[in-house]
Specification:
CATH architecture: Roll
Shape: globular
Oligomer: single chain
Order of helices and strands: EHEEEHEHEEEHE
Largest sheet: 8 strands, mixed, barrel
CATH superfamily: 2,3-Dihydroxybiphenyl 1,2-Dioxygenase, domain 1
Protein name: VOC domain-containing protein
CATH topology: 2,3-Dihydroxybiphenyl 1,2-Dioxygenase, domain 1
Number of helices: 4
Distance between the termini: 48 Å
Organism: alpha proteobacterium IMCC14465
InterPro entries: Glyas_Bleomycin-R_OHBP_Dase, VOC_core
Amino acid sequence: MQPENLFGPITQIGYLTDDIETTAAFWTQTSGIGPWTLMSGVSMATTMDGEPSTINIDVAISYKDDVQIELINPLCDSPSPYLANKRAGLWGLHHMQFTTKDMNASVELAKSAGLELACTINQGGGVYSYLRGHGVWFEMIQASEELEMFFGMIKSACDNWDGKELIRDIAL
């Protein structure tokens, strides 16, 4: 019997790095992924393990088919889903993301499967929940229509990429 797919398709692969430009170039050279949309100095108010925190990151987004690839450079030592990896110098694959229309129901389903809600973020038109279990991070996103449109513009740029501009910087 095949296990049940609780959350649907993976919509994002999150990757931690301490050098977004070098990592983006590597992903492009090895996988043909690009261009990358870079957002520098993103600050997010969050709740991590029940305590308020502020996370500061640089983030770059691209797509491979329908899967979003997210490069994250944690810029702070605030409590976050990224902190332990950063302190240990563990760069690379960090999390898988799933998109939901009902965050509360998805979080409850994840908890019933043995995952622990660790972090919640409500920012930029999205509600994000990070869940952990068995050494794996899962991220759930419930995106507004505006955020979905923003992601759609990034995906369109990737679908029509001519291979010239590797990184597009967006001021927030």
